[in-house]
Design goal:
The chain has one domain. Helix content is about 75%, strand content about 0%. The protein contains nine helices and no strands. α2 packs antiparallel against α3, α2 packs parallel to α4 and α4 packs across α8. The longest helix has about 40 residues.
Length: about 220
């Protein structure tokens, strides 16, 4: 079911999508990733139905739509990254109060980022509840910006393409996505944690693997 907040968001999205098409999706995803104020499952699911299925466009359009949404995600996440990197913890604290984010939540995300590094940025983009926050510890830790952008884009493209695809296949029933996501969060988090563990083990194995010594011929 769609609540009043989502209804208000939908009215705004319909106007933006009518006027700007996929550029509108990019702009909305910038806002979503920089503030976390708009639920991405609604933004992307609605786009999958309104901009693709309702116009009778082929499924392949989903991948172009995912690109437009992922670009917006990277720009929005970069705003958070640079805000945290330049402003430091005092600015992050003020942002948390402004957007009513529990600082303990940010601190937990920061601890996971320190433990998992770049892999957490990628997998974090696929985890509901923390996907918009992973840019903050990356900025505070002064992670290489190109590395941050690459990991963010990879994770965001998968996330955006999946939800746009879901909106496309659900058609007029795309609004069911919101309820599905809420029910699936525990399972998604479990899968994300397991994937992160596998990534850590793989990274550890690469570091421990003996490097072959080249013997030069005389």
């Amino acid at each position: 079911m769609i609540n009043k907040l989502e209804t208000t968001i939908l009215n705004a999205l319909q106007y933006i999508y009518d006027e700007l098409g996929w550029l509108g999706v990019t702009i909305v995803m910038i806002i979503e990733n920089a503030t976390g104020l708009t639920p991405s499952e609604v933004v992307l699911g609605f786009a999958g139905w309104m901009l693709i299925d309702a116009h009778g466009l082929p499924f392949s359009t989903v991948f172009w739509g995912g690109l437009a949404a992922a670009i917006g995600s990277v720009i929005g996440a970069s705003i958070l990254y640079w805000t945290a990197r330049i402003g430091g913890r005092p600015v992050v604290d003020r942002m948390a109060k402004l957007f009513r984010i529990d600082m303990r939540h940010i601190e937990r995300v920061e601890q996971m980022a320190k433990r998992w590094g770049t892999g957490f940025i990628f997998f974090g983009r696929l985890l509901p509840g923390i996907r918009t926050l992973v840019a903050i510890p990356a900025g505070l830790a002064r992670m290489s910006f190109p590395t941050f952008v690459a990991a963010t884009f990879a994770g965001a493209y998968i996330w955006c393409t999946l939800f746009i695809s879901a909106g496309y296949f659900l058609g007029h029933e795309w609004h069911l996505l919101s309820g599905i996501v809420k029910q699936a969060v525990p399972y998604v988090l479990t899968v994300g944690v397991l994937a992160g563990i596998v990534f850590i083990i793989w990274q550890f194995w690469l570091r421990q693997r003996p490097v072959p010594v080249k013997i030069e011929k005389e």
